[in-house]
């Protein structure tokens, strides 16, 4: 089983992804950059689905990617 991180501010999309991916392993959903950073610093993930547009122009998903790669 794998640990999967979903960074998605749309609750419907996050729920849909969780439903489809939960059979593959443990799924963690972060709805904003701050939750994503907290999850990345406290857990190890094998796979991440990152929304590139989190609704706030200066806090987009592109800021999460380098943190995810470092971990």
In short:
With 71 residues, the chain is of the alpha/beta class.
Characterization of the model:
The chain is α/β, with parallel strands linked by helices and 71 residues long. It has helices at residues 11-21, 33-42, 64-70; strands at residues 2-7, 25-30, 47-50. Helix 1 (11-21) links the parallel strand 1 (2-7) and strand 2 (25-30). The protein starts with a strand and ends with a helix. The model has no long low-confidence stretch (mean pLDDT 86).
Q: What is this structure's SSE topology?
A:
Elements: E1 2-7, H1 11-21, E2 25-30, H2 33-42, E3 47-50, H3 64-70
Parallel strand pairs: 1-2, 1-3
pLDDT averaged residue by residue: 86
% residues in beta strands: 15-25%
SS content category? alpha/beta
Secondary-structure element string: EHEHEH
Q: Number of helical runs?
A: 3
Largest sheet: 3 strands, parallel
Residue ranges: pLDDT <50 for 5 or more in a row? Answer: none
Question: Order of strands side by side in the largest beta sheet?
Answer: 2-1-3
Radius of gyration: 11 Å
Helix content: 25-40%
Secondary structure tally: strands: 3
Question: What would you call the shape?
Answer: globular
Distance between the termini: 18 Å
Say what oligomer this is: single chain
């Amino acid at each position: 089983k794998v640990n999967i991180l979903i960074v998605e501010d749309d609750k419907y999309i996050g729920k849909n992804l969780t439903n489809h991916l939960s059979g593959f392993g443990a799924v963690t959903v972060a709805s904003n950059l701050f939750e994503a950073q907290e999850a990345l610093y406290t857990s190890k993930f094998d796979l991440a689905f990152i929304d590139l547009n989190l609704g706030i122009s200066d806090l987009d998903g592109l800021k999460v990617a380098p943190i995810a790669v470092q971990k």
